[in-house]
């Protein structure tokens, strides 16, 4: 059985996995901004706390990206989307 594909070449599972990755990347960005604000405020406790939150968000983004990439390989949809150059994944 061939899964239902939308007009953009992405099945509903691929769309959901991509959405989870984008949510995780957005959370990473939010936490990173909080880390920068703590650093600029010269608050070492907050800086360390937000640094840990950023790492946690980055791990979640890596996990979500891995699931999306596995789906791409196994299912063959979403070919136009490449997450290789995403700065969230560069660290």
Structure in a nutshell:
By secondary structure, the chain is mostly helical. The protein has helices at residues 12-40, 44-75. It is elongated and about 50 Å long.
Description:
This protein is an all-alpha fold. Helix content is 67%, strand content 0%. The protein is built from 2 helices and no strands. The protein has helices at 12-40, 44-75. α1 runs antiparallel to α2 (44-75). The radius of gyration is 16 Å and the shape is elongated.
Helix and strand arrangement:
Blueprint: H1 12-40, H2 44-75
Helix pairs in contact: 1-2
Mean pLDDT: 87
Any low-confidence stretches, pLDDT <50, length ≥5?
none
Shape, please?
A: elongated
Helix content: 55-70%
Number of distinct helices: 2
Amino- and carboxy-terminal Cα gap: 39 Å
Question: Could you tell me the strand content as a percent range?
Answer: under 5%
Q: Would you list the SSEs in sequence order as H and E?
A: HH
- What Rg do the Cα atoms give? 16 Å
Structural class: mainly alpha
Number of strands: 0
Q: Major sheet, described briefly?
A: none
Characteristics:
91 residues, mainly alpha, 67% helix, 0% strand, elongated
